[in-house]
Amino acid sequence: MLPTTLSKDTIIALATAAGHGAIAIIRLSGPEAISIVDEVFKGKKLANQPSHTLHFGTIRDGEKILDEVVVSLFKAPASYTKEDVVEVSCHGSPYITEQLIKLFLRKGARLAEPGEFTKRAYLNGQFDLAQAEAVADLIASDSALTHQVAMKQMRGGFSQEIKALRAQLIHFASMVELELDFSEEDVEFADRSALRRLITTLQQLIFDLLKSFEMGNVLKNGVPTVIAGKPNAGKSTLLNALLNEEKAIVSDIPGTTRDVIEDEANIGGIRFRFIDTAGLRETQDTVEAIGVSRTKEQLKKASLVLYLFDVTSTTPEQLNAEVAQLELPQVPYLLIGNKKDLATPAQLESFEGFENLVFLSAGNKDGLSELEDNLLELVHANEAMTGDRTIVTNLRHFQSLQKTADALQEVLQGLDTGLTGDWLAADIRRCLFHLGEITGEINTDDLLDNIFTKFCIGK
Ligand code: GDP
């Protein structure tokens, strides 16, 4: 549990990653931040300096110089936490940072809890809860798309959408509640058909947001891409080529890729999670049989399927049969004719007319960049990933949106059955409550602890 009397304490943490580096930054925030540093900083008196200035000097423990540092000064409320903040940039040695932090602790600071700087920023009104959560997502982002989504959320895009929805509902809630004050007179301030229109519009918007969560997850965790095909088609070789390393076991004994191998590659700013599978075929071998059933399992989870076949030993008829046997669910797929280096022109031509088909040679990486282009095209063809659409990536937001959707449905049912204003108002309030949970207009200590303890210390 984080302390609730936040502003009394001055907190401290290492803001940069642990370990050796060119520099390290120690951050202090709180009412004593400036005076604590002033006590041990030999240079200008920080309390007398204007905000947003840098100061060179030494940090001393008594007569002993611990380091030469540059101090950055941010005076309340013009700082991340809206409190007085001092950042001490020192030499990036774990020994030095430890000595400095111990010294500041002795002078009255206390160690920050995980996420406590950001929690203070939120509690002091720097941003709302969804934006605060996006800070953690931004730090965790590792591809162009996760970065873009987190950045948009941090800058308030998602919050604005939620707040606009709430504002419209608040208007109706107050109209319905106004009616209650005039209950004797049987008046309707809230136009029921306009309310119904608003609810259906909101439902559609929330439905889109809920749907985007699936894509949000894909963005965060990587596009699950299954590599399937008969034994010896070259799946492991292709996986190695895509990953550029020797992770999967390559062998020319059919059926040696027994386990499902997963690995990730960042292609064109999108993270792909490649799943290599054992060959798809009916088999008596019990170990291999497990592999085959796993392949079918994996296919169900795939967002993309790469179906690999050996062009030198597969006829178009066989390929058709194999594709049919796959019982592919409705996921985008690519057919990959591998080993084109061994194929005759006639063999390649025989596959004319197949859609979504590319030839390559996984063995010598010929055609790999075309394959990567095709992969990106398939992902971008999914409209949820293109354009400016808001994508929900956070499970907590997803759950609150689901509860909002349920409550909206009840408002609609209430309208259908001519529910009285007081019940209608209660259902609308419930929608408002769940929407408010997302941006933190509604919060509890437990909720905040749950969110901020997942942050790293120092953020
Ligand atoms: P898997 O069973 O589908 O995983 O197939 P592997 O990746 O183990 O490959 C089977 C055999 O085909 C290995 O001997 C590979 O070296 C070979 N192979 C894979 N790709 C190519 C290719 O593009 N050209 C040629 N000539 N051989 C390949």
UniProtKB/TrEMBL annotation:
Exhibits a very high intrinsic GTPase hydrolysis rate. Involved in the addition of a carboxymethylaminomethyl (cmnm) group at the wobble position (U34) of certain tRNAs, forming tRNA-cmnm(5)s(2)U34. This is tRNA modification GTPase MnmE. It comes from Rufibacter immobilis. Residues 222-380 form the TrmE-type G domain. Mg(2+) binds at residues 236, 257. The keyword Metal-binding applies. Keywords: Cytoplasm, GTP-binding, Hydrolase, Magnesium, Metal-binding, Nucleotide-binding, Potassium, tRNA processing. Belongs to the TRAFAC class TrmE-Era-EngA-EngB-Septin-like GTPase superfamily. TrmE GTPase family. Homodimer. Heterotetramer of two MnmE and two MnmG subunits. Binds 1 potassium ion per subunit. Its EC number is 3.6.-.-. GO terms for molecular function: GTP binding; GTPase activity; identical protein binding; metal ion binding. It is found in: Cytoplasm. It comes from the Bacteria. GTP binds at residues 232-237, 251-257, 276-279. The gene is mnmE. The lineage of its organism: Bacteria, Pseudomonadati, Bacteroidota, Cytophagia, Cytophagales. K(+) binds at residues 232, 251, 253, 256. One of its GO terms (cellular component) is cytosol. Its cofactor is K(+). GO terms for biological process: tRNA methylation; tRNA wobble uridine modification.
